[in-house]
Every structure is written in C-alpha cells, then in structure tokens.
Known about the structure:
heterodimer; A: Rossmann fold; 30 helices; B: mainly beta; globular
Amino acid sequence: MAKQINVALIGNPNTGKTSVFNALTGLNQKVGNYPGITVEKKEGVCKLPRGVKAHIIDLPGTYSLNASSLDENVVIELLLNKNDKDFPDVAVVVSDVENLKRNLLLFTQIKDLEIPTILAINMSDRMKYKGIQLDIPLLEKELQTKIALISTRKNKGIDELKELIINYKELSVKPCVNASEIDPNYFDNLRKAFPNQLLYKLWLVITQDVNFGKTDRNEVDAINSFKTKSKADLKRLQQKETIKRYQFINSTLKKGHTIDLKSAKDLRIQLDRILTHKVWGYLIFFIILLTIFQAIYVWSSVPMDLIDTAFAFLSEWTKNSLPQGAFTNLIAEGIIPGLGGIVIFIPQIAFLFLFISVLEESGYMSRVVFLMDRIMRRFGLSGKSVVPLISGTACAIPAIMATRNIESWKERLITILVTPFTTCSARLPVYLIIISLVIPEGKFIGLDYQALTLMLLYLIGFGTAIFSAWLLNKILKIKSKTFFVVEMPNYKLPLFKNVVLTVIEKTKSFVFGAGKIILAISIVLWFLASYGPGDDFNNAESIVTTAYASENLSSEELQQKIASHKLEHSFIGIAGHAIEPAIRPLGYDWKIGIAIVSSFAAREVFVGTLATIYSVGNDEEETIKNRMAGEVNPILGGPLFNFASGISLLLFYAFAMQCMSTLAIVKRETNSWKWPTLQLVIMSGFAYIVALIAFQVLK
Amino acid sequence: MQVTLADIKRGQQAIITDVSSIHIPLKLLEMGCLPGNLVELVQVAPFADPMYLNINGTHLAIRKETAIHILIDITNG
Lengths: 699, 77
Ligand SMILES: Nc1nc2c(ncn2[C@@H]2O[C@H](COP(=O)(O)OP(=O)(O)OP(=O)(O)O)[C@@H](O)[C@H]2O)c(=O)[nH]1
Ligand SMILES: [Mg+2]
C-alpha cells in the first residue's frame, strides 16, 4: 500500500477549513460562523481517486505564522517541526473569497517555508452576490501555486481539490516573497551561523513568543544567541515583513481580482445598526435569551412526559415477561430506570444545542462579544469570555477548550476557572425534575413560574461566574499582556444541515457519555441496594412481620414495609445512613445523599440514581417523578421534596463542582493540579454552605 | 495634537498614517491595519469602547486603548 499523503488544512479563522475537512473526510466536525470554532488538531482520512489515500488534518484558524494565542500556536508548532508525524506533505490554504487579500498573507508565509501549497478559495457561491471576479490562471502564475475554487455549501470544486492533492509533487516550492530583504545584514549573519537551516524557519523560531510551547526545538537551540536584538527591534522587523508581504499581495490582486461594488450587496450594515446598537443591541440579546428558556421549557414538556411513561411501562413489562430472578430485577429495577433518568432529558438538551448552534452559525456570537467586552472587562474577563460562558450552558468541557482563543493568559485563566458555574446541560435534569416537584404551576405575565425559576437559576449561574471573576481579578497577581482584536464575520443564514448535524452529534454524545456512567453506576447501586449484611437485612421478613403483628396490615402494606426495611439495611442503606448527619441539615435524606455522592462523577447521574434506588423492591409501575413526589421526610414528615429542601438542592447543584471530566480538562488546560483542586474545594464548599442556609431559612 | 483612531466619528472616513507604536499588536497589522489603508467606524459600544471598524474591507472590533495608538488622517466628514 502506498504511503498516505499528509494534508494540512490551514487558513484564517472562519474561512471554512472545517467545512472542507468534513467534505473531504465525510466526518462531522463542528462548524460555526465565529472565528475560533476549531481550537485543536483534528484528523481524518480521505479517499482520493485511483486508490490513493490522504490523511487530512484540520487546524485552528490563524491570521499568520506569528501566534498570539494558544489555538494559533498549534499550527506553528506543527509547521516548524519536520519530525512531527503529521507534518504535511502538502498544505491546503483555505481562504475566503471575500477576504482574499488578508488570507493571502498567511499563504505567502507558508510558501516561504517551502512546503508544497495549494490555494483553496472557498465560498465561491458568494462571488456573484459580492460582485467579485477572479483571473485564476493569472493568480496561479503570480502566486506560483495551483488554485481550487470551491464552495463547500454548494459542494463545488471538491473533486478538483482532490485531484490537486494527488498531484502535489508537481507544485512549485518557490517562495513568493523574500523576507530576508527586510534586514539583509541580520539575515546574512543568520545564514552563516546555520547554513543547513531554512532561513525563514529560523526567523519564525526567533520571533515566536515562547510563552505557550514546549516543542522540541533542539535543532535550533543555539539560536538564542540571535535573540540579541531587542523585542522592539524584532517587532519592527515583523512589521516591515508584514508590509512587504502586503505590497506583494496588493500588486498581485490588482491584476487578478476585481470587485464590482455596484453589484455588491450587504445586509451587514443594516443588521448591525440594530443588533450592535447601544440600547437595542442589549435588549435584543436579552429577549433572545428569554425566548430560549421559555422554549426549552414549553416545547419539551410533552415529549418528556411521554418518555417518562414509556420507561415506567418498559420496566414493568420486563419484570412481567422475563423469568423471575435477580437478573430480571437488575434490568427492571437497576438499568432501565437508570437509563430512563437520562433519556427523558433528550428533548431539552436537543433544544438547547439547537439554539446555541443557530447563534453560532448566524454570526451573531461576534456581536455579543462586541457588546459585552466593556462590561466583561470590569470583571477581569474579555468580551471573548462570553462565548465560553454561553456555550458552557451546553457543556463546560468544550467551553473551556474555547477559551484558547483568548489572547491574555490572565483573562483566559479566570474564564476557565469561572466557566463551570454556568448552568451546563447536565444540571438541567436535576433542575427540571426538582422544579416540577416544588415550584407551583401558574403564570406571571405570560411566562410560567417554572420557566422563570429555570431562568433565574441560569442567571444565578452567570452571576456567580461573573462575581467570582471579579474576585479572582483582584486576587490573582498575574501580569500578562492584554489586547483584544475580534473579527466581525458577515451574517450567514444558518445552514440547516450543519445545525441539525451539530444537534444530533451533541445530543448523541451527551446521551452515550452519560449513559455509560449511568449504566455502570446503576448496576453497582442496584447490587448495593439489593443485598446487605447481617440479620436485619436477611431476616427482614420475620422482623417486620413480628414488629407489626399487632397492627392489622394488609399484605400489600406489609410488603412495602419489608421492602423499605430491607433497603434501609442494605449496603447502600448503611452507607447512606453513615453520611446522613452531614446532609440532614440541608434537608435531604440518605437516599438523596447517595444520589449526590454518586453524581460527583457527573451531575446528570442524580436522577438516574434516585430512580434506581426508588425502584428496588418496588412492584408498581410508576414514573420517576411520581416516585419522588411520594417520598416522605423520615423526620419532619410531609413530602421529602418540599419548597425548602427543593430550593436547597437546586442551589447545591448550581454551585457544586460535580464533574470529573471538567476537572480533568481544567488540569490539562492550565497544566497544573492547583486550579482544579481549588475549583473543587471552593465550589463544593460554597455550595454546601449556601444550601444549608437556604434550607434553614426556608423550612 | 495628533489625530488617532479613537477620535473618529460615525460616518467619517480616514486614512491610517502610522502604526509603529509598540502597543499595537502585530495581529492587527496582519489583519490589514497598515499605513495607507482606509478606515471607517461602523458602530461603537457604550462609552465608545470597543470600536467596530471597517479597515479596507475587513470588519473587526478593537478596544479604545489600542485605537489611541493608531494615527490617522480624517479625509471626510
Ligand atoms: N456561503 C458559504 N459559507 C460557507 C462555505 N463554507 C463554509 N461556510 C460557512 O462559513 C462558516 C465557517 O465555517 P468553518 O468550517 O467552521 O470555518 P473554519 O475555518 O473551520 O473556522 P475556525 O475553526 O473558527 O477557524 C460557517 O458558518 C460555514 O457554514 C461556503 O462554501 N459558502
Ligand atoms: Mg474549524
């Protein structure tokens, strides 16, 4: 078998690299109309004609080979390291036809690295609309490359691109611009010192901010002696280099690129006049958020009830139709209710992802960044922190990854630390079920109480995130350069296919990710709840029968008493009672305690755990909700889930750090155990105190 | 006094004259903020910060603290 061709997709942010990647590989990586959607390397395989295979690498967008944030650094690290297994045989520079000039800057830099380079000009479907015309043969000659004019939306030009990739060996590797002309003396000395190295590569190594990386640059270690030039001098040279490149690009485009401004149309100006307006802009943003919560609540209640009933039925049916025994019980009482506790939330989660994905695909996200920057800065965050905070409502993990395009380390660190306060989709199940139990139904100027409570919880999450950012900003003594440049992309009609695919992918990974944990936990829980040590458990029947001998109980009531006596003395009951003193002041019983402990791995496990515990030994067909509503507080009497304990639980989940995966990601992104440990201790400690106060005040 | 990008008003157009200050991030130059290029204010957030600009066809937002280092000549308005 022939060797695979390594192909790297490189280009400015938001030019459609990931769309090209998906078109080539048939995968479904996330696409969005916001610069900085892709923040790490993604790989896939593309079958080219004539049995050739290509290994495609999708990279984060970058404006040049001078990295100023972590995501951009990924690209530079790859291109500077010839020994990297992913080092490209051919680079495909994906550019946006509307911003060709700016896109070509990066193109000329990559050419200078003497890597075979193809220029893919994407979004060709917009050319007519914008009145753009290109003289492709002329551009190919001037830029010494091959050009593929493509449109991933209209699926045009992809085959031509594949053809160019196969024939990559025919590409010229001559540079377009001679960078060393910016300071001939300096570059001459450099050449003499390292005769075997590519001059432009040396220059890049010298000028990189080494803040980010840990790459193995041994081969050019001696280069330190050339850093003698002061930072300011180097920067001046970089400016000169940029100007020189633009001169070349301008003269090239003058010949090969024409725009007929008369036929160019633009909705941007009209839309932005309103959407980024000092008053209307904020109002519209608020209305959009409000609509999302109302919609999540109202639209998904019907499918939710259906799913709940279906699972209760399924559990009952399994019990009746499979042969009796421990295994049937495990399925009917452990696994099915546990999984039901997650499947039931698919409608909400899907709606949430739908809205976020539409916001991202339309180009609106950059406007929010613009609107919020000033406000966020007061709290030590950047306008760009808004994106992680919003996408954190889906899941903190991609949100924390998304902070990679924040330039300032301090702003980025603070964003990482506070993002877990935003209400992620895993909290949604807990909130929904408890709200439906303790908040009365009813309407207040057209919005229902329950939806309002949910919105309030989201606001509490955001509020806490922002307040802790402000605190951290005061406490943390980190010096880092701050600057802020954000591109404002054109508005685009969200592509139906992209939105649907994102929703399906995300929902799937939510269900399967959580499903795996829940499956494991519910099996363990079921065993712990179905077996126990000692007399109390094994002789439960005779003990209970004797105890209630004088009272005239029906056999059904007696069975209930036996089942609950057994549960109390099972392994899990014993463990639960052991932790009960710690949680009783918060208004919880031992079963909730177990659910909280098991949801330390992941919050969404909470409902599933309760569902499993409640159904062990229980023969009636019941929905999770009804079972929870029927629980009685063992000490105070009355329903266990009442207003006081409900609010206490809601607040506990709003603040507690209960997600192993988030902790792991924070560890990775901050490169230290210090931050995730602090997060865990402070957030969960704070959650406990707030929940305690809430219950004691309200009870 | 020198005119900087922070002084530009809505509806005005200007030519960038100097970007050599050390406080201007390289990234901005790479996005096309170079001497000789045309710049226009599209929208400002409250307190005129950040500023939403159109520089030679590239739309971007920068903070005022950066804008005060970019020198310009206002050509109309
Ligand atoms: N009109 C049009 N839009 C496109 C085309 N290709 C991609 N887009 C849109 O451009 C936007 C950016 O696409 P992505 O594939 O996420 O771009 P990217 O270069 O990977 O972006 P980053 O990862 O953020 O650097 C999305 O909204 C796409 O739907 C095209 O051929 N025509
Ligand atoms: Mg991408």
